[in-house]
Amino acid sequence: MWKMIIRRILILIPQLLFISVFVFLLGTLMPGDALTGLVDPTLTADDLLRQRELLGLDDPLPIRYIDWISGIILEGDFGQSFTHRRSVTAVIGDRVSNTFWLSLTILILTYIIAIPLGIIAGRFGGKWPDKAIMFYVFIALSMPTLVLGILFILTFAFNFGWFPASGSVNAIVMAQGTTMDIFLNRIHHMVLPAMTGALLGTVGIIFMLRANIVDRSASEYVKLARSKGVPTRVLFNKHILRNSIIPVTAGVGFAIAGLLMGVLFIEQIFLYPGMGSLFFQSIVQRDFAVVNALILLFSVLTAAGMLISDILLIVVDPRIQIQ
């Protein structure tokens, strides 16, 4: 297993380097540069030339790329945000925890909802529990994130007033409340965006688990075990479910990778102050230093999610060898 992990990490290095080159070139093609937003009428043309020289903006592209990537790797320096007048690292650092906890909550809720429903649908294939769950799956499959988010806001925030429609914490609670009050208030703000992501994220897991259970229930080794008098409960738990749930368990990494894109839109819908809303705001404000840093960060997290999937697949079933 360790050889596989080391091999996968070594494969990731050139992939991430290629992504970094692409992001850098994308940034250079965008209008504006590191001086954008820092220029004021008092600066003369000579001042601008000196600033460009200090920032290395007139250096050849390879030198600029090396300076940029070495600053990220060695110092964690992604540059300066001209919109926030702060380092990009500090700007993203303010939002990381919100996105992390929201993503983790969505992931946990997704599996809590999807695994029991997938098991029930597969166990009672063709019967009314399976049909009811498949009806829910098809509704969720055809429901855009924007539509479900707005429906939740209109229903549970505006009509019933049970949950807040935006933000991550109440300002008054943040200023005057205890640590526990702040924690509970954050959870309260997280309910609607987390449920939006979780309900829509269950579709693939339910489909996969149900299909695996149905296929294995009709397999030859299951028929043979049933003919030998193996109890149905033992047969289902030990042979069918155990083998069916392996791909679902290993798919956690893929779920993490796919979750990032979903969180981008969910944060924007609920005005949740995370990296997703920061990404869209930075595009609108043309703050390309932040945009490039977030694209690179999302790429790294996606690659890490794929690596986690491969590791989990080996852990769950050591017989599997990933080439």
Question: Which helices and strands, and how do they pair?
Answer:
Elements (H helix, E strand, L loop, with lengths): L1 H28 L15 H11 L5 H15 L4 E2 L4 E2 H36 L4 H15 L2 H15 L11 H6 L2 H39 L2 H8 L4 H19 L1 H18 L5 H10 L3 H29 L7
Antiparallel strand pairs: 1-2
Q: Could you write a compact summary of the structure shown?
A:
By secondary structure, this protein is mainly α.
How would you describe this structure to a colleague?
By secondary structure, this protein is mainly alpha-helical. 77% of the residues lie in helices and 1% in strands. It has 13 helices and two strands; from the N terminus they run H-H-H-E-E-H-H-H-H-H-H-H-H-H-H. Strand 1 (80-81) and strand 2 (86-87) form a beta hairpin. Helix 4 (88-123) packs antiparallel against helix 5. The chain is globular and about 90 Å long.
